[in-house]
Specification:
Blueprint (H helix, E strand, L loop, with lengths): L13 E5 L4 H12 L3 E6 L6 H8 L5 E5 L8 H5 L4 E4 L10 H21 L4 E5 L11 E4 L11 H16 L6 E7 L1 E3 L7 H10 L4 E2 L5 E2 L1 E3 H11 L8 E5 L5 E2 H11 L8 E2 L1 H15 L4 H6 L5 H8 L2 E3 L2 H7 L7 H17 L16
Parallel strand pairs: 1-2, 1-4, 2-3, 4-5, 5-7, 6-15, 7-12, 8-11, 9-14
Antiparallel strand pairs: 10-13
Helix pairs in contact: 1-7, 4-5
Length: 366
């Protein structure tokens, strides 16, 4: 079996990326355009497109911007027409999100993108799922892609289960080829979902480790995830397949916390709580978050169910399928990826705050 080199895609293609201003979308677009591919970048009408604007200025890249507010999106089929591949990275990851809101974006939004891609004649649809779909709320050790989907009390994870089921069943009814990738906790420069909240909790002295902090954490550096995506693009081996993805390194909860504290010069966290206390805090926080104001809700994210997965449950996943079938081998080590990530966070904190606004020059003409 031929294993591709990371970054190698046969020929040049037009690739549509949803969630283009997110951490995965932006880093993927950067890799794709540097490799000579044309990109259709879908952004929300309220998105800050500053980073993409700066990317456009660095070279003669072919990037076409399209405004897309899922699940209500106009002219989506026309925007995708001519594209060879759609990479669907868009999604809502709010740890205390309202189930109906998560369903609207993660499930209904995915269906809208799927239907439009098929109607536009797209050849392959790559769906960014999550390892949470096979984890539930229990410890996992060496779990493979054959593990059944596990519903739990986490609205985000359950919405990703429904989205993945929708995507994989779609493959059996249409000519468009489907690939699903399940990353763990994604980290990297400009990550906004979990790492800033954890860092803030460390500074506030409210970050907690569950048990003795020795359990495994499933992490993936954004550049490694983008390499896996590129390895799957127009790769017949990946058609109809699901892949677990992490950095492939054993990193404990305590190691993760200590590396972050050392990298940002924060006093190391040494607050440990037993699991039964952690579950009680999470249950209480999840209940209170339903009526809490936005600022308080953000601070309560450290006591959310995704946070419990990160800090308290063993997250051991087998990525040998991606290694053997896709050639997902040449990866950036955790130490290097996290160092670059923390450096970007430190630089961002030292810079004066920039007013966030939508860059209208990047909006589509239609």
């Amino acid at each position: 079996m031929h294993l591709r080199e990371a970054g190698e895609i046969q020929g040049k293609h037009i690739i549509c990326v949803t969630g283009s201003t997110g951490v995965v979308g932006f880093h993927l677009i950067r890799q794709l355009v540097h490799a000579g591919h044309e990109v259709v970048a879908m952004v929300r009408s309220c998105s800050d497109t500053h980073a993409l604007d700066e990317l456009v200025k660095t070279g003669p890249f072919k990037i076409r911007f399209v405004t897309c507010d899922l699940p209500r999106a106009k002219n989506l089929v026309e925007s995708m027409r001519g594209c060879d591949v759609v990479v669907h990275t868009a999604g809502c990851v709010d740890p205390h999100g309202i189930p109906s809101d998560l369903w609207e974006i993660n499930v209904e939004g995915t269906k809208v993108v799927l239907d439009a891609a098929a109607a536009a004649g797209v050849q392959q649809f790559i769906h960014i799922s999550s390892l949470s779909v096979i984890m539930g709320d229990k410890d996992c050790f060496g779990i493979t892609e054959d593990e059944p989907l596990r519903y739990c009390r986490e609205a985000y994870a359950n919405s990703k289960i429904e989205a993945e089921k929708l995507v994989m069943s779609f493959d059996k009814k249409h000519a468009m080829k489907i690939t699903a990738l399940r990353p763990g906790f994604i980290y990297g420069p400009n990550e906004r979902s979990w790492l800033p909240k954890l860092i803030a909790a460390m500074r506030w002295r409210t970050a907690m480790l569950v048990g003795d902090g020795s359990k495994e954490t499933n992490l993936i550096y954004v550049e490694n995830l983008c390499r896996a995506i590129i390895l799957a693009i127009k790769n017949p081996v990946a058609y109809g397949q699901i892949y677990n993805l992490t950095d492939g390194q054993w990193v404990s909860k305590r190691q993760l916390f200590d590396v972050i504290c050392t990298g940002l010069n924060i006093s190391k966290n040494r607050l440990y709580i037993p699991m039964f206390v952690a579950r009680s805090l999470v249950d209480f926080s999840s209940f209170m978050a339903m009526c809490a104001p936005l600022r308080m809700k953000s601070r309560m994210a450290v006591f959310s169910r995704p946070a419990l997965r990160l800090a308290g449950l063993n997250q051991g996943f087998d990525i040998s399928k991606a290694e053997s079938q896709l050639g997902y081998i040449d990866r950036i080590p955790f130490e290097e990826g996290m160092a670059k990530t923390l450096e970007s966070f430190a630089e961002k904190q030292s810079r004066p705050k920039r007013k966030v606004s939508v860059n209208r020059s990047l909006q589509p003409n239609n």
